[in-house]
Amino acid sequence: MKILFFGLILILTSLTTLTSHPVLAQNPESQPTRFSLRTLAPYNSYRIGYETLPVRVLGGGGGKLGPREKFRLHVSMIENYTPKKVAAVKFSFFIFKFSDWDELVEARQTDLMSLELAGFERQQVDLVVGYVDDIAVLAYKPGAEFHMEIAITEVHYDDGSIWQATDLPQKRNLPKAP
After folding, report:
1. 125 FRET partner, CA 20 to 30 A, in 14, 23, 96, 119?
2. d(Cα 135, Cα 137) in Å, to the nearest integer?
């Protein structure tokens, strides 16, 4: 009986040792970063003048590849609405209050990014155009929520000509309910 009792204690001790995990204090660097960015989209097609943009962002998104990575912003689809070949573009981020997508909080523009896009071509791409971590206004603040739109605001064509947006973002022109 004593042997059985000691055997049971030995087994329970082994199981407790194997299944227990030490609780480690977490430092702030290991905590996930929070942001106040609620939505991210291509430049809104309901904005006044949208149809005049010669090259448009049709798809994009954001995310992290790992816990220590920055939250990246990327463009996944673009389309050239002109017959000219595109050699490079600049993207702009427009950050609006989430409660009012016409109230601009901040705008930023990327450096010139090379790419090849034929006339009237739609192309799937994976371009990292920025990082949420680098935009101070998007740092988490209780009650603050933002909406971001990404547009191409400068186009360098293969023939040397350049198009630049001068009046973006515009207000939305939402359809009226019947």
Report:
1. 96
2. 6
